[in-house]
Amino acid sequence: MLSSQVADDGRRRSLHGHWSSRMAFVLAVTGSAVGLGNVWKFPYIAGQNGGGAFVLVYLVCVILIGMPVMMSEILIGRRGRRNPMATMALLGREEGHSKRWQWVGALGVVAGVLILSYYSVVAGWVLGYVVKSATGTFAGASAEQVSATFAGFTGSWQAIGLTHTLFMGLTIFVVARGVERGLEQAVRFMVPALLLLLVALLGYAINSGSFMDGVQFMFTPAWEKLSWGSVLVALGQAFFTLSIGMGAIMAYGAYLPEETSITGSTATVVAADTGIAMLAGLVIFPLVFANGLDPAEGPGLVFETLPLAFGKMPGGVFFSTLFFVLLSFAAWTSALGLVEPAVAWLVEHRNRTRSQAAVMMGFLVWFVGLGSVLSFNVLNEFTFLAGTIYDNVDYLTSNIMLPLGGLLITVFAGWIMCRNSTADELGGAGTMYKAWRGLARFVAPIGILLILINAVWPTIRATLDI
After folding, report:
1. According to the model, what pLDDT value does residue 4 have?
2. Which residue in 59, 109, 313, 381 has its CB near the most CB atoms, within 10 A?
């Protein structure tokens, strides 16, 4: 099977097909990068850590950390043209090193499966809120009623188990159809639709009466709020927002045509991801301020604060529904990237058809996700280490697996792969290549190490009672 990946011209070809164009690839990677966190997390942490000052630091971190890691992951994927595990094994041997680098690919595949297992549960809440918004549940509701609705919904394992099942079904339906008929067709519709919905909601927010309050909250530089902790937050957000370190970008890179510029595509994705995050803030915070609500709600902003704001506004039922449809698209496109590496592995190494692999992996993710479903109700008092089952899976993936995977991928591209291999994928050894190589070899690994240490140090400190 693997030998069939080498074409007559000597270049490798993916067994799963290719993106039909650069734009298809950019839309797919943007869709993978833009998720639920973009909508509430970036605007919230920007406002709380110095506004415009934080945005500037964040952009620097994206350029110095996010872009070189994403470029590394894409070039590795295109070089190997296989699933992340097989790609790392193959390139490890080709570069004169061990095939044991396959375990770095395996780390990304497993991380994607675990993340999707709980991400699907939260995305299911969003689907549930599309229905609740459309049926007028939040129209004129008080804060107590909105909170009770959320508590009642998450407190029912049957309700969130159903939405979790529905979301996984939608995800597997797309993935089973393949690269061009499934993934590409989906992102060609959903990513532009997401942007259009954001623009429509932006118009609504501009007329809310508190638009400038939202702008000032996010973008007015407050240098006194910017601390070393804020820089670490910016570093972490720059890393996590691009969906790097989990194999998704490597898998998508395997389907990238040879003639497509990795540098140009990465820059476009980073600009789109950052732009959408900022647009989301300009949608959310004017609505929050217009209703005198707390912008520092964090995750509760989406499921408790915003429904309350929409419920008090003219046209709130329609725009609330629109907002949660937007969130559903963002979650859906991210989920496709999370499961794709595992599906590709099953197709390549277990002789499964695309449909069989998608269903098998979808069932596995769904089953593991039941632990997160029950964490909010039946097993909410069953805690260990970091907390509930949901808390532990979230902690393991976000704080350990993703930073570690991103660090090892960058080290592999910058130190293990030779200049000829990386220069071939990045279009020569000019100024841009030299900049990438310097960042990938020195700056990005140090930045990711800081993210990893910052994430695990509080736990180590508590464990050792330092």
Report:
1. 39
2. 109
Q: Which helix (H) or strand (E) holds 321?
A: helix 316-349
Q: How far apart are CA 318 and CA 339, in angstroms?
A: 32
CB atoms within 10 A of CB 255: 25
Nearest to 322 by CA among 160, 409, 439, 200: 200
Whether residue 280 contacts residue 214, with contact meaning beta carbons closer than 8 Å, is answered with no
In this structure, what is the dihedral angle of CA atoms 119, 410, 94, 101, given to the nearest 10 degrees? -50
Both tokens of 73, joined, read 């992951």
Q: What proportion of the chain, given as a percentage, has pLDDT over 70?
A: 96
Distance of CA 206 to the CA centre of its chain: 28
User: 């509430």: which residue's tokens?
Assistant: 40
Segment among 46-55, 241-250, 408-417 with least mean pLDDT: 46-55
Domains and CATH numbers, the chain: 2-464 (1.10.4160)
Q: Give CA–CA dist 75/441, Å, rounded.
A: 15
How far, in Å, CA of 436 to CA of 37, rounded? 27
Residue 426: which residues within 8 A CB-CB, separation 6 or more? 71, 75, 262, 263, 432, 433, 436
Phi then psi for residue 387, to 5 deg, are 140, -130
Phi and psi at residue 6, in whole multiples of 5°? Answer: -100, 120
Task: Render pLDDT for 357-376 as a digit per residue (tens, 0 to 9).
Answer: 999 999 999 999 999 999 99
